[in-house]
Amino acid sequence: MSVGSHRGGRRRRAAAVGVLGALALVLVACGGGGASPQANAGAPNPNGVLRFGVDLNSGFSGDFDPGTGTNDCSFQELSQIYSSITDEPPGTEGNRTILPGLAKSWQIAGSTLTLHLRPGLKFSDGTPLTADDVMQSINHIRKSPLRTSLLSIVSMDPTNATTLVLQLKQPPTPGDLLLAFSFLDGMVMDPSSFPDAASHPIGAGPFALKSYQPSSEIALVANKNYFDKSAYKLAGVDFVQLSAGPQAIGALIDGAVDMIELMPTDYPAAKGNPNIGIAITPSYEYMLMQLRENSPPFNNAKVRAALEYGIDRAALNKVVLNSLGQPAYQPFPSSSPGYNPQVGNRYTYKPATAKAMLAQAGFPHGVSFNLAFPAGEQEYENAAEIMKNELAPAGFNMSITQVPPQDILQDVYENHEANASLIENSSNGPDLANNFESSYESTGFVAQALGSVNPAMTTLIEKASNSISATVQGPYMRQASAMVMSQGLEVPILFVPEIVAYNKSRVGGNVVAPIGNCKANLQGIYIKK
User: Fold this and answer.
1) How many folded domains does the chain comprise?
2) Residue 400: exposed, middle, or buried by beta-carbon count in 10 A (0-12, 13-18, 19+)?
3) What is the pLDDT of residue 34?
4) Is residue 8 situated within a structural domain?
5) Is omega for the bond preceding 296 within 30 degrees of 0, making it cis?
6) pLDDT, tens digit, 9 for 90 and up, residues 302-341
7) How far is CA 90 from CA 35, 37, 253, 375, 521, in A?
8) Is 166 helix (H, G, I), strand (E, B) or coil?
């Protein structure tokens, strides 16, 4: 679905379950909880506006159109303005299930996916939302080179105001599409807003755009036409520009903001303050190195394989994530159906092994490469500096380039600068195969940019994508995990938890961190009187 995301500080809601047919797509319609949601008593202020501190300069593209924006982290703000076709629950349930959004249910029959919309849906301006609007939104958004999941749709037919029938390519991957529909790919826009959506969006989300000051603030107001108004108790949300780090903690303590996405390195300072509440949710999201396989040195599979042994993931977790994450010795954590026990923790730090592998590959004096990552991202900067030192005795001379976040897409992926990039793969919940689509399928944006198209991986992805069921996806993804590591197709580094900190004197309700970064779960929380 995307290139990957970067933290700027890879979906939601529920009702009935889709009717499935032969594919046994198991979806549970229930709310999720984070690892440690905090309950806060206090009467809600009906006029309360939450001030959420985020790094708009890094995490927002400046474009409110999901079809033209280039930063997937914009999902955090856009998901408040637009509702998507499907949804994911907050908290750890988001790792396992997908839920109805604008579509209340669906049926799958072979290569046909039929969506049934909730009755009486409206856009924020009061205009009725119909199946034709959903079709037009999909056609608009799939023009983006980042929304590759939508390429699986061959045709669409809105048979009535609440029914949309989609015909999919062979082999059909409806499970993957339903997951993608909970992200930017499935956002529904008022078609009349297409020409001006970049600055004047009209959606059907819980909030509507009130004002936007670039690099300063995005002010949202509650959408009086939202289909599930009882789920949201805020009169509005102001996303306020705030760089991550000590200044974010300071702003939270001082009352300048009510809530922030907390970086793991700032966790001790937040934990030590009795006025700050913290919610943590583990996820499948992971930091990784993507490698340019269409040019030296990583066009050599033996060099890539050696790199897997040159990273001390345990040390990185301790220093970069304050021991709150997990070392990623393969692309899926041990709690995931995609985890391969035969791979296990095989790829621990073994610099002598890596150096010997390089010599066997024809590089007795080692290799040099350049790693790029978004500037201003402290986690990436810390990780890169540590890895540079770890890789040296393994025979890798790694140089570092920080790229302005708004230029990552063009410089690294389109202009082919740098040999590797440091990113985070957003959690794809129960659709494990989605981790790999963009990186290894021939239609994938990353695969085309980095030369990483892989037919064997594509076969596993396609077989897994017939369903989101763990029993279907798990075995194929365990094979994929082994293939990724043995061939060095990417370098998983750390599984990254999502942490939200908030002012307990101001924020009430149950605060639950989402399953990954670039998201904001605002259901059920409120500003106290």
Assistant:
1) 2
2) middle
3) 39
4) no
5) no
6) 999 999 999 999 999 999 999 999 999 999 999 999 999 9
7) 11, 11, 25, 29, 7
8) strand
